Each structure stands twice: as structure tokens, then as C-alpha cells.
Amino acid sequence: MTTTIFALMILYLIYKWTVSWIEYYSNLDKRLGKSIWRYSYDYHVIGKRDVALYDDKQFVILRRKRNRAVTIMYLIFFLSFVIFMSFLNQVLLRILNI
Questions:
Q1: How far apart are alpha carbons 24 and 47 in whole angstroms?
Q2: Which residues on neighbouring strands pair with residue 32, listed in sequence order?
Q3: Sequence ranges of the domains in the chain
Q4: Which pLDDT score is estimated for 75?
Q5: How confident is the model at residue 35 (pLDDT cuts 50, 70, 90)?
Q6: Which residue has the higher pLDDT, 11 or 42?
Q7: Contact, 26 vs 33, CB < 8 A?
Q8: What is the tens place of the pLDDT at every residue in 49-81?
Q9: Phi and psi dihedrals of 48, rounded to 5?
Q10: Which of 4, 38, 50, 53 is deepest in the core (most CB within 10 A)?
């Protein structure tokens, strides 16, 4: 039980670290937006022309870095959810064994 608490604390710190990287990347260019949960689109959107690597290389590289940070954030978030469910399982087992 203490190992799951310790793991949740470490994952929370890693989560906050990735969120700070996402906010840092978002502040470098206003075209990326302020949402930490949403990906910047790298795909064709009907009616809009996407910025390609040959149009604005620095922006596309920055967008890919930010999208990678968002992916890591989602990974940490869902891993934390699984570990939290394990923690609740351990708590319920202790309650029921009393």
C-alpha cells in the first residue's frame, strides 16, 4: 500500500512536470493555443490549410515537441488511473478483512 502511494506521488510530480513543458511550448507560439489536453493538428482539416514543414519549419518542430509532451502527459494520466485503482483495491481489501 505504501508503494502505491509512493508511486502515485512520483507520477503526480511527473504529470506536473509534463504539464509545465506543455505550457512552456504553448507560450512560445500563440498559434498552438492554451489548452493542455488538446493536440495541435498535424492532419488535413477541411477548409483549413495546415502549416507544413516547408512552410514554417520552426513552428512545425515546436508543434511536434508539444504534441509529444501531450502524449506523455496522457500516458502518465492513464497510468496513474490504473495505479489509483490498485490503491483503492488494497484499501477495500483492508476494510473488508477487519
A1: 29
A2: none
A3: 2-96
A4: 96
A5: confident
A6: 11
A7: yes
A8: 666 666 778 888 888 899 999 999 999 999 999
A9: -125, 145
A10: 4
| Residue 45: strand, helix, or coil | strand
Lowest mean pLDDT among 30-34, 44-48, 88-92: 44-48
Instruction: Look at residue 48 and give its three-state secondary structure.
Output: strand
C-alpha cell at 73: 502527459
Q: What is the dihedral sign for C-alpha 52, 53, 58, 64?
A: positive
Its pTM stands at: 0.80
Rounded CA gap, 27 and 10, in Å? 26
CA nearest 17: which of 62, 63, 72?
A: 72
Q: What is the rounded distance in angstroms from the CA atom of residue 32 to the CA atom of residue 55?
A: 16
Do the beta carbons of residue 15 and residue 73 sit within 8 Å?
Answer: yes
